[in-house]
Design goal:
single chain; 220 residues; mainly alpha; two-stranded antiparallel ribbon; 2 strands
């Protein structure tokens, strides 16, 4: 998710961070609630992905994280709000972004692409197509949570801090509810390896597939 930088609006948000006049939460009282709930769900997804992927990642010598991906956490006003609300233990570095020796420094507000990226080596450790698909859905949940929350844009693409009303709580709640439902199914699948017929559509809503692929994965 590479996005252009709007210098005017980024400066405006820096005013917010420094206690200046541009304060999106002043004109949109729903924003603090969105930030808190977004961060809470992001944490759940992050922890579950780490549980699934850390055994492989901890022994891997390749570096998947790139500073250009990390930059979005600075360029996006919404991700900046998350970072200010949940400060990272270490600062951003030009040469390594948010990556530290122990992983990402960001507690909340990671760019969605950080969750979407799924190493093929990790995918191949899954024995079935269903398991591979379920893991892929897990990695899309943070992205899904923010889709179309600001018009047709993802919430991290919202750049105009002078128009906080462009972020809609009702849309966010709808997406979060869908993502939460999928998360519960995924967590259950990790315990028992089963997705019921009524649960598959919840996952298919997150990560679209052709009908033939759906039948193959769900073994219908």
């Amino acid at each position: 998710m590479s996005r252009g930088k709007d210098a005017k609006n980024i400066r405006g948000f820096e005013g917010l961070a420094a206690g200046g006049e541009t304060d999106p939460t002043r004109d949109n009282k729903e924003l603090p609630d969105i930030i808190t709930r977004y961060a809470a769900f992001e944490e759940k997804v992050r922890d579950l992905i780490a549980h699934d992927c850390s055994p492989r990642c901890s022994s891997c010598t390749a570096v998947c994280c790139k500073p250009e991906f990390c930059r979005e956490a600075l360029d996006s006003p919404f991700l900046s709000m998350l970072r200010n609300a949940f400060p990272p233990a270490e600062s951003y570095r030009q040469e390594s972004g948010w990556l530290t020796e122990t992983g990402c420094a960001l507690r909340a507000g990671r760019p969605p692409i950080c969750y979407e990226f799924l190493c093929q080596d990790i995918v191949e450790t899954r024995e079935t197509d269903a398991a591979k698909y379920v893991l892929s859905v897990l990695c899309r949940l943070v992205t899904h949570m923010g889709r179309f929350v600001s018009g047709r844009r993802h919430i991290v693409e919202w750049m105009d801090v002078e128009d906080p009303g462009a972020i809609r709580l009702s849309r966010f709640e709808k997406r979060l509810k869908e993502a939460e439902a999928a998360f519960s199914i995924i967590r259950s699948f990790q315990r028992n390896g089963i997705v019921s017929d009524r649960e598959w559509p919840v996952l298919f809503n997150i990560l679209k597939l052709a009908e033939s692929a759906k039948r193959k994965i769900a073994q219908r």
